[in-house]
Amino acid sequence: MDHRFGLHATAIGSIGLVWTPRGIAGVQIPAKDEDATRRALQKRFPDAAEAATWPTFVADALASIRALLAGERISLAAIPLDLDGVSDFDGRVYAVASGIRAGDTMTYGEVAARLGDPSAARDVGRALGRNPVPIIIPCHRVLAAGGRTGGFSAPGGVATKLRLLAIEGAAPGGQFDLFGHG
């Protein structure tokens, strides 16, 4: 597939976006610096070439992501995605997660119940850990039982998850993030 990528400044650092002509295929959450973000992105998408310019749909997606990360409670559901190779189960999990509004959360068990299998909470967690487009598919809005944060596979782990939730005005289980928000 013809993958391209670019690094883009946001309120949380430089994110990487990977796209094909069909849509966004990957999001790389910022690592410790731009070079680390680029390396992480290229590890996930070794065939992707860095682009100096990007199509309108990528610029529009970037504007929406920047607005969300600046604290606007907007939906990213209209961003075109290219999730080629995602399993049917993972796609169903991503569809449920995409319906969680900024500022709201669900548990892994609640997502599993929406899929018709309340015993599949661990499978939901694994699917979200494979999410190729975090932020666009807001896996950070899915928590463990009792409002505990659970894991987060992006750079920074749970601290990044808490930061994203704080930006959106959600405080899991009344917890405070690293910046004193709750």
Tags for this entry?
4-stranded mixed beta sheet; two-stranded parallel sheet; globular; 2 domains; 35% helix; alpha/beta; Arc Repressor Mutant, subunit A
Give the arrangement of secondary structure elements:
Layout: E1 4-10, E2 13-20, E3 23-28, H1 34-44, E4 49-50, H2 56-69, H3 88-98, E5 106-107, H4 108-114, H5 121-129, E6 142-143, H6 157-167
Parallel strand pairs: 1-4, 5-6
Antiparallel strand pairs: 1-2, 2-3
Please explain how this structure is put together.
This protein is of the alpha/beta class and 182 residues long. It folds into two domains: 4-69; 88-170, Arc Repressor Mutant, subunit A (Orthogonal Bundle), CATH 1.10.10.10. It is built from six helices and six strands, in the order βββαβααβααβα. The protein has helices at 34-44, 56-69, 88-98, 108-114, 121-129, 157-167, and strands at 4-10, 13-20, 23-28, 49-50, 106-107, 142-143. The strands form two sheets. The chain has a four-stranded mixed beta sheet, with helices on both faces. Strands 5-6 form a two-stranded parallel sheet. A hairpin with a 2-residue loop joins β2 and β3 (23-28). α4 (108-114) packs across α5. It starts with a strand and ends in a 15-residue tail after the last helix. The model is unreliable at 174-182 (pLDDT under 50).
